[in-house]
Amino acid sequence: MLSFLFLSPLLFGVTAYSGDENDYYENHYGSDENGIRYSPSMQAFYDEHGHDAHLKYLTPNSFDLDVYRLTKRDGNSTDDKNSSNVFDYSENIVHGVNIGGWLVTEPYITPSIYWAAAETEGDQSTVPLDEYHYCEELGTEECQSRLQEHWDGWIQEKDFKQIKDWGFNAIRLPIGYWAFARLPDDPYASGQEEYLKNAIEWARNNGLYLWIDLHGAPGSQNGFDNSGLRDSLNWFNVTENYDLTLKVTYYLYNTYGGEEYNDVVIGIQNLNEPLGPKLKMSEVVRFNYNTYSQLRSTGSENNFVFHDAFQSMGYWDDYLTGSVDPKSTNYTHHNSSTPDYINATSFTDDDGDYYNTILDHHHYEVFGTGVLKLNITGHLLNVKSFAEGMKDEKHPALCGEWSAALTDCAWWLNGVNRGSRYAGNYSNPDGAIGKY
């Protein structure tokens, strides 16, 4: 089992920057005919490959997949080993840590920078809710200046060495879609990808593995502040949001899924915590098939990581398992207002299996009044049941986030200007469970 936890937050100071916003956009982002602005590296990629490249290997409603370059293994082979030195979760024990609050800020992890952006000093009600509103409140140029200093100081190579010295061997690195592309009205700052590249080299230099985690999607996949945009759930139901997500995932797979990164990158997670109970699960399933297909279409054999979407243990046993069943048909981009049908090449004699699929679970003992009322024995039984459920799943499964916290009283853990269930001042009609 692979376990991750968040690093404790560090404090840091910020400085101001002034400049013309149009100059900022001109210098940092190219844009397409829809006004979507791309980072220089992503712009160069799609200029070379075409801006519809991410649509070529998507699945139809039936979840059948075009297997053009989808599997490198012979479909009749019984060999379940990796053929290109891809990290094998069945043979390696991984002890990992999340680097939260760095390339995706969260108010509870980095409260100092959010307090510094309050419209009224000391007034919590004027603190930005998330990174979107942080940059909107400050303006993109000022946000860029403050976050640039944060990125430079929050995590450095010495921290990777310390992580290694503490006995960890892996890092899960959250990063938002806005590091690579922004919607026309997005206020986000740019430049995070350079720190992702630094992180890969720092991991390599210090004998650590790195797991790249797309932590936020356009419109938000869950409405949590850690997605970049709180209280919004417009990922699937806005065409350009879903399309841009697929554009980012395809870029990530092409850029970081190659063999040259196999010594460091042990998986690329297509999306953190899509909120299955509030989304159509058929759409989440299709997104997982689409992005698996994208990864394999690049020739990558690296690990495809996907989150459980808050479904029960065993839910995913019948998805992305077994043999790929190639069909001779046309494939189309899902949810496009002007569908672009792409003729798929059928290889009916190559029916390889889905492989290197890793299921990510997250476990906390604080996000509900019922669990907060448990005694220590109750908490331990919960964890035991959780681990036993993971062990019985068909996919290699791990716990990508967890915490030993027993209350939700950490400042802004539930969000800016919210209290805690434990103290009875947030989402608990029955009153306080305990005291701070």
Automatic annotation (TrEMBL):
Keywords in alphabetical order: Cell wall biogenesis/degradation, Glycosidase, Hydrolase, Secreted, Signal
Protein name: glucan 1,3-beta-glucosidase
Cellular component annotations (GO), alphabetically ordered: cell surface; extracellular region
Broad enzyme group: hydrolase
Keyword Acetylation recorded: no
The species this protein was found in: Ambrosiozyma monospora (Yeast)
Signal peptide start and end residues: 1-16
Record-level Gene Ontology MF annotations: glucan exo-1,3-beta-glucosidase activity
Domain of life: Eukaryota
UniProt-annotated location(s): Secreted
